[in-house]
Amino acid sequence: xxxxxxxxxxxxxxxxxxxxxxxxxNWVKYHxxxxxxxxxxxxxxxxxxxxxxKDYSKKNIKDDKELFNSISDExxxxxxxxxxxxxxxxxxLTQAFMNKMKKNISKYSTKEFDNGIxxxx
Length: 121
Known about the structure:
Layout: H1 11-24, H2 33-51, H3 58-63, H4 65-88, H5 93-107
Helix pairs in contact: 1-4, 2-4
């Protein structure tokens, strides 16, 4: 696989790669919304377990190559299943994101949430 980075990659790349991976293994029948949500939760649990009862700083994580790689792998697992769910539902992620951000901007106005606290003043 060629070297690619966030700054030069479109969401369609991920959708196509995951689609090819799933179809190439004839796994479409297993990639139902329910199964994919459960797989996302499972992988998120593995990610959470890496940090459970530990108070790592960002620097600690970045300096510990093994931990950083494990976290990176689990984040990628969550992302892969999330992309597969997006593919399964024929969801336009950009539109879903924009619609949700509009709701969030309205729900969490900077007038009420400008002090770094997650609840209203």
